[in-house]
TrEMBL record:
CDD domains with a match to the protein in the record: RadA_SMS_N
Pfam families in the cross-refs: AAA_25, ChlI, Zn_ribbon_LapB
Motif (RadA KNRFG motif): 255-259
Biological role: Plays a role in repairing double-strand DNA breaks, probably involving stabilizing or processing branched DNA or blocked replication forks. DNA-dependent ATPase involved in processing of recombination intermediates, plays a role in repairing DNA breaks. Stimulates the branch migration of RecA-mediated strand transfer reactions, allowing the 3' invading strand to extend heteroduplex DNA faster. Binds ssDNA in the presence of ADP but not other nucleotides, has ATPase activity that is stimulated by ssDNA and various branched DNA structures, but inhibited by SSB. Does not have RecA's homology-searching function.
Organism (species): Chitinophaga dinghuensis
Matching SMART domains: AAA
Superkingdom, natural source: Bacteria
Protein name per the record: DNA repair protein RadA
GO biological process: recombinational repair
PROSITE patterns (alphabetical): RECA_2
Name of the gene encoding the protein in the UniProt record: radA
Length: 457
C-alpha cells in the first residue's frame, strides 16, 4: 500500500502547497486553499499504443527540413459554426475544453453534433444525466444515430475499460467536474481530481489519436470551474456564452493550438435544439418600419466576422438625486466615459438624467467601434429625435471627443452595404488608402463628435 498524503490546492489557479496559505502566492487570491487527499504514486501508464501512433516511436534528433509536412487530417462536423471555431474541423488526438454557465445548452450542442456525425463512432460519457434523460433530449432534437454510444459513468478507470472495448473515434465527456480517478482520493470537482482526470484523458487522446471534448461548468466570475491549469493542459478552449433569457448563443475560441482565437460561432436556441445562424446581422437588428428615438445601428466586428447590432438608449429626467446608469451588453464604465465626453465636449446635461443602454439580442459587444453608435443613440434619445433610417456607425470615441479609426473598416462597410444601408459614419482617420468608389453606400467621414451631431440633428 502506498502512503496517502494530503496537499493544499488553490481552487482558483490550482497552485499546490504543502501547507495552508491565506493568500495564494501564484494568483494572489485570498482564502482559496483547500486541503485535498492525494496519493503519492502516479498511476501506471495506460496502454493505448496503436500501430499508427506517432508518439510510440523512439525519438532522435532530426533536422527540421527532414520533417515531412503531413496535411492535418480534420474531422468535419455538420455544424459549420463549430468547424470554424475549431479552426477548420476537429484535429485528431486533440483535447478540447468547452466552458459555459450551467443550463446554457453545452450538452445540447455536443449531443446534437454527435448525433449528426453519422459515420463516426462517438462515445458520449455522461456523469450529469441518466440514459433516460439523454434519450429524451435526443428525441427533442429529433436525431438518432446507430454510431452513437452512451456511457453513464464517472470513474476514469471504468471509462477507459469501456473505451478499450468500443474503440470510439470521438469521445465527449459531460462534464469534467463529475469525473473521478481512483488514483486520487479527493472528491469529484476538486482541483486535484480535475487535474488528474484531465491528464488521464489527455494521455488517452494523444496516445490513441482520438479527439476528446471536455464539457466544463463555469463559475460565477466567468472562469472555468476548478483550476486555470486545465486551460494549459488542453489544446483548445471554447466558451459557450449567452443569456438564458435570450435565444442567441455565442461559441467563442479562447485558446487554440490549431487555429485562430478570433473565431466565433452564433446559434439560436429553438425547441428542437440549436440552429446555426449564418447571417447574424439580420436577426440582431429588430425589424420595424416606424422610426424610434434612441436607436442606432453599429457595424461591429465579432472576431473575424462583421456584425451589425442595434444599440438602444433611454435618457430620462432623473427623479432621485443620484442619476442612474444601466448598461446591458456594454461596459458600464465605458458608458460613463462617453457620457462625460458628451457633457464636457458637447455641453449636454446628462448629469441630471437617468441613462439606460441596451444592446439588442442579448449579446455582449467588446469592439470599441460601437462607441459612435452608443453616442448617437444617447443623443437621439436626449433630443427625442429619431435617427434617419438606413444609417449605421463604426468608430471609437476618444476622451477629447475625437472619432478614432477602427480596424477592418472595409469589411464593416461591405456588410452595411450588403444589408441595405444607405449611409455609414466612420472616422476621418479611416479614410486613408481606401477606395470608397467601389461601394454603393455613402461613406461619411467625421473627425469630431460635434460634426456627427450637426450632420444628424
Ligand atoms: Zn491561486
Amino acid at each position: 500500500m502506498s502512503k496517502i498524503r494530503t496537499a493544499f490546492f488553490c481552487q482558483s489557479c490550482g497552485y499546490e502547497s504543502a501547507k495552508w496559505n491565506g493568500k495564494c502566492p501564484s494568483c494572489g487570491q485570498w482564502n482559496t486553499f483547500v486541503e485535498e487527499r492525494v496519493q503519492k504514486d502516479t498511476p501506471a501508464k495506460q496502454e493505448w499504443k496503436t500501430n499508427d501512433n506517432p508518439l510510440a516511436r523512439t525519438q532522435k534528433i532530426i533536422s527540421l527540413s527532414e520533417v515531412q509536412t503531413i496535411a492535418e487530417k480534420r474531422l468535419l462536423t455538420p455544424d459549420n459554426e463549430l468547424n470554424r471555431v475549431l479552426g477548420g474541423g476537429i484535429v485528431a488526438g486533440s483535447l478540447v475544453l468547452v466552458g459555459g454557465e450551467p443550463g446554457i445548452g453545452k450538452s445540447t450542442l455536443f449531443l446534437q453534433n454527435a448525433l449528426q456525425l453519422k459515420d463516426v463512432k462517438t462515445l458520449y460519457i455522461s456523469g450529469e444525466e441518466s440514459e433516460q434523460q439523454i434519450k429524451m433530449r435526443a428525441d427533442r432534437i429529433r436525431a438518432s444515430n446507430e454510431q452513437f454510444y452512451l456511457l453513464t459513468e464517472t470513474s476514469t478507470q471504468t471509462i477507459f475499460q469501456e473505451i478499450k472495448k468500443l474503440q470510439p473515434q470521438l469521445v465527449i465527456v459531460d462534464s469534467i467536474q463529475t469525473l473521478q480517478s481512483p488514483f486520487i482520493e479527493s472528491a469529484p470537482g476538486s482541483v486535484s481530481q480535475i487535474r488528474e482526470t484531465t491528464a488521464e484523458l489527455q494521455r488517452f487522446a494523444k496516445e490513441s489519436n482520438t479527439p476528446v471534448f471536455l464539457i466544463g461548468h463555469i463559475t460565477k466570475d466567468g472562469s472555468i470551474a476548478g483550476p486555470k491549469v486545465l486551460e494549459h493542459m488542453v489544446d483548445t478552449v471554447l466558451q459557450f456564452e449567452g443569456d438564458q433569457h435570450y435565444a442567441y448563443r455565442i461559441l467563442r475560441t479562447i485558446k487554440n493550438r490549431f487555429g485562430s482565437t478570433a473565431e466565433l460561432g452564433i446559434y439560436e436556441m429553438t425547441g428542437t435544439g440549436l440552429r446555426q445562424v449564418t447571417n447574424p446581422s439580420e436577426i440582431l437588428i429588430s425589424q420595424r418600419d416606424d422610426l424610434l428615438s434612441g436607436v442606432a445601428i453599429s457595424a461591429t466586428m465579432e472576431g473575424m466576422r462583421p456584425l451589425l447590432v442595434e444599440v438602444q438608449a433611454l435618457v430620462t429626467q432623473s427623479v432621485y438625486g443620484t442619476p442612474q446608469r444601466t448598461a446591458t451588453g456594454f461596459d458600464l464604465r465605458r458608458l460613463q466615459l462617453l457620457l462625460a465626453v458628451l457633457e464636457k465636449r458637447g455641453g449636454f446635461h446628462f448629469g441630471v438624467k437617468d441613462v439606460f443602454l441596451n444592446i439588442a439580442g442579448g449579446i455582449r459587444v467588446e469592439d470599441p467601434a460601437i462607441d459612435l453608435a452608443v453616442l448617437c443613440a444617447l443623443l437621439s434619445s436626449y433630443e427625442d429625435n429619431a435617427l434617419p433610417n438606413k444609417v449605421c456607425f463604426a468608430g471609437e470615441v476618444g476622451l477629447s471627443g475625437e472619432i478614432r479609426a477602427v480596424n477592418r473598416i472595409e469589411q464593416r462597410i461591405a456588410e452595411a452595404e450588403k444589408l441595405g444601408f444607405d449611409k455609414i459614419f466612420i472616422s476621418r482617420y479611416n479614410k486613408k488608402g481606401i477606395d470608397f468608389s467601389k461601394f454603393n453606400i455613402e461613406v461619411i467621414a467625421v473627425g469630431r463628435v460635434e460634426e456627427v451631431y450637426q450632420q444628424l440633428f
